[in-house]
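Q: I have four molecules that I believe assemble together. Could you output structure tokens for the complex as a whole instead of separate predictions?
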Amino acid sequence: MNLPPLNLTEEWLDRLQASGYRLTQPLRRIVELLVASPRALGPIEIYDLVRVHYPNLGLVTVYRTLEKLEALGLVQRVHQEDGCHRYLRATQGHQHLLICTRCGRATYFAGDDLSRLIRHTEEETGYLVQDHWLQLYGLCPACRQ
Amino acid sequence: MNLPPLNLTEEWLDRLQASGYRLTQPLRRIVELLVASPRALGPIEIYDLVRVHYPNLGLVTVYRTLEKLEALGLVQRVHQEDGCHRYLRATQGHQHLLICTRCGRATYFAGDDLSRLIRHTEEETGYLVQDHWLQLYGLCPACRQ
DNA sequence: GATTGACTTGAAAATGATTTTCATTTATAA
DNA sequence: TTATAAATGAAAATCATTTTCAAGTCAATC
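A: Yes, here they are, computed for all four components at once.
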């Protein structure tokens, strides 16, 4: 019988272990950081933040860990204007991102109403729409003030 | 008195000249290609396609020309999954992109109904939404068959 | 608790896209 | 036709990401 994980970090580590990965120090540090971050982080940012308390970390390990976490659907890539990527804890189900342009805070929202727009567009263009990519930008409640 | 441009290529070249740029051979070739392309092209693609008839072209010139065209709002960056960019003739006003996953054909559509979704999301999250980024993927009429 | 072997790691080098530098070429105004 | 400032192409520099490989570490087994 499986007891529920104490918190999200434990849950991620359980998932990783269940998938055959070893729970190493670098992995644990990176997971802790990503679970706790309210905004998407880039590889270099993760590298710098983890090295504050774990100076031996290599940048390559950051990339390799992000690859694992993305493969398990635990983190999601967030596209940047400049082509680089940042990484954010993923959400369950199909949700979209709302990103604060001031502090970077990322919030998921449902956005079901997109189906109407998609139907309209199919009629208008003759395309068969199979997938979509939506991201909203603005000010989070804290930054509005 | 200004006569209307004969075609889109002339229009782009007029805009470039009016902005103080010189109308060089490399520039003309790249503009002709982008005006005629139904799908977004990457720098290397442009480089290869133009060199078929203008072998002296340098890749650097492609990047510099794209920069000018983007600054004038004549082309638009299209983000790729891998972080690279492609470039597509821009549209007038605020429209979104619909891209064929098979042949790459890009079509613009209005998508005004997004305002409802944005209002909902603002109420739901407390954010002030200022901007958005929407792209649809699917099969174009020709590729559906 | 010690041992073993495979998975992970970190450093350095490789890669690929993009940018910068600079001497040469070229468009355009005089 | 000439002068000159802008644009070009080649090579080198930069930056993000990936690959290579020897050394280190986790976790199963003794």
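A: One point stands out. The mean pLDDT of chain B is 92.
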